[in-house]
Amino acid sequence: MPLKIIRNDITKIPCDAVVNAANRLLAGGGGVDGAIHRAAGQELYDACSKLGGCPTGKAKITDGFNMPCKYIIHTVGPVWRGGDKNEPELLASCYRESLILAKEYKCESVAFPLISAGAYGYPKEEALHIAVSEISRFLMKNEMTVYIVVYDSECFQTSKKLLSDVEEYIDQHYIDEHFTPRNSTVFYDEPPSKLNIMERMLGAKGLTGRADSHSCRSCHLPCEEKTVEPDLNEMLDSLDESFSQMLLRKIDEKGMTDVQCYKKANIDRKLFSKIRSNINYKPSKQTVLAFAIALELSLDETRDMLMKAGFALSHSSKFDVIIEYFIKNKRYDIFEINEVLFSFDQLMLGS
Questions:
Q1: What is the DSSP code (8-state) at residue 241?
Q2: Which of 170, 207, 293, 346 is deepest in the core (most CB within 10 A)?
Q3: Cα torsion angle, 167, 168, 172, 175, sign
Q4: pLDDT at position 216, please?
């Protein structure tokens, strides 16, 4: 996935480059900075001492030393002073400069902490918004996997109003509709045997072929009903379009390019190539929904696309209810959706 929020210790991420939220002297300190220096060892202190510090909003690079990464990119975030001291631009610059360095050093994967959101006091919601905006803007023009690494979901909070709205929607459509009292009883007209279930399914599709009373040609005796077996070859010949076919059709209908679509969906280029080249490709549910969001499909269109891949939306799944909320409200920002999914400890959309 090009951009992913993960819960982990940033000193243990096996990627090409880890970004360090450093101070201007590059001398180590507390929080993420201290943890990275301790993990990398004395060699990192020695290397940083030769760099001559780093201005706020800029970035410098060293080897990874004892860390499980090739490089450590050191960037200095702004101290929060109320927001009118150019803090937003300086923080955005931290991400831009770090990504430029990563690209220059041919890094394919980079892990960021949430810069300035700790001891420097930057409001976490605003810090996350800037991080996601700058990273996603970079990824629209570049191929790279980028992680935002946090310890837990409380390390940041997306819009409290949005979370409150989503929680209310979940309460209405997940808990209320699927809570079954212990003493409730479900009655059937007859025991739901496998045969009965199959008959109902085929009947709903018009495949049982039941007929009124008639005379059977073979025996010339009255018959109450006669089952006409559906022709399997005819059914196979009339298969509906596959997920891959529907996806490519929708991309054309929306007037998008392939690149625009898979980047907006937060999908890796290699994965998209597999989908495009294989008409029968079977994607994950998260991948299908990522494309539905990128294409800004309606709820009915999303259900149709899910069905092509063998999935459905269910009110018994909190993940599904959250996705339904965003589609119903026509909020198609996949990174905003992933922030909320992360907050509710759900899988995120994308590769």
A1: P
A2: 293
A3: positive
A4: 52
Instruction: Give the pair of three-digit tokens for residue 122.
Output: 């930057």
DSSP codes joined into one string, 157-197: ---HHHHHHHHHHHIIIIIHHH---TT-----SS---HHHH
Sign (positive/negative) of CA torsion 31, 118, 8, 61? negative
CA 205-206-212 angle, 5° bins: 155
Nearest Cα to Cα of residue 338 among 122, 142, 109, 129: 129
DSSP conformation class of 80: P
| Tens-digit pLDDT profile for residues 284-330 | 999 999 999 999 999 999 999 999 999 999 999 999 999 999 999 99
Annotated catalytic residue, options 33, 84, 300, 345: 33
> By CB neighbour count within 10 A (0-12 exposed, 13-18 middle, 19+ buried), where does 57 fall?
buried
Q: Whole-angstrom Cα distance, residue 106 to residue 267?
A: 20
Q: Specify whether the CB–CB gap between 125 and 339 falls below 8 A.
A: no
Give bridge partners of residue 74 from the DSSP assignment. 20, 60
- Checking if the pLDDT of 129 tops 80, the result is yes
State the Cα–Cα distance between residues 141 and 122, nearest whole angstrom. Answer: 28
The region, left, alpha or beta by phi > 0 then psi within -120 to 50, assigned to residue 52 is left
**CB of 83 closer than 8 Å to CB of 29:** no
pLDDT at residue 259, rounded to an integer = 95
Give the span between the Cα atoms of 87 and 122, in whole angstroms: 9
Query: N- to C-terminal Cα distance for the chain?
Result: 5
Q: Say which DSSP state 34 is in.
A: H
Assess contact for 304 and 288: CB atoms under 8 A.
no
Quick: pLDDT tens for 82-126.
999 999 999 999 999 999 999 999 999 999 999 999 899 999 889
Would you call 33 a catalytic residue per the annotation?
Answer: yes
